[in-house]
Predict the 3D structure of the following.
Amino acid sequence: MIRRLLNSSLIHLPLPLPPPPKPKPTTFSFPLQTFSHMGDTRRPSPTPIPSLQQSNRSELLRALESSIGSSFSSQPLIPNPNPLVIVISGPSGVGKDALITNLRNSRPSIHFVVTATTRPRRPSEIDGKDYLFVSKDEFLQMVDKDEFLEYALVYGDYKGVPKQQIRDFMAKGYDVVLRVDIQGAQTLRKVLGKSAVFVFLMAESEVDMVERLVDRNTETKESLLVRISTAKEEMKHVRNFDYVVVNAKGKLENAVKLLESIIDAEKAKAPKVRGAPANTLAIK
Ligand SMILES: Nc1ncnc2c1ncn2[C@@H]1O[C@H](COP(=O)(O)OP(=O)(O)OP(=O)(O)O)[C@@H](O)[C@H]1O
């Protein structure tokens, strides 16, 4: 079974894929000579600057270039930002899957990493799209082959983030979103540090969170109790995250919008602000 899985390529990618972002320019040019030659007697006398209103545009630009002492580059002043890794986590039942399903629709250019899991597939889920459903033996063989960036035993089932998918998509310039439980987020923080963006998703109140789990109708009484008591404990980890998104009852779209704003703001950060550029992540 595991051989079939590996031979048929571990990564079941959602197709068709949107076009990847445009590749970055390889050079970054900036007019460095600006005023450094002022007073240099060897410099040829600058072309007189014609009237700003009446002159022809290219004539004016040539005269300005000549006065400045360098030509104006049409390359972007700031190269395209590096691909971003966004880690979405939060207690059970807060709406992580629901949020990601909605984000998928609004941001088709993001790659959503398909987590491998040994838990049974829920009726609404599609193998290879929502999760990669594997047996326990298959999962453990993948562990032996060091195929996971992070994996954990969550409520009796294994879940793991396949490395190769992240490498492949980041190499093509895609931003990637990972969905992990709280222990997974802690491990990923150690592996990725500040080069990934960690988002903690929470419900507005405990009662909302419990109601969502009950209404989802996927748990036994026992597993419901474990999830609820774990969730209370997990709320303490919120301070280790970069952002908190509250998924208020009936307002999933607001949570999606906030997450999109976070992604946009992270992409717009000045290059020096973030730590190591995300696409230089050492995923071994
Ligand atoms: N804002 C919301 N208001 C009401 N119900 C919601 C909201 N967001 C999600 N839900 C519902 O809450 C239930 C739990 O959501 P979901 O399965 O996405 O949680 P999860 O965090 O992925 O849980 P788990 O970690 O256990 O897989 C689902 O039935 C989902 O449709």
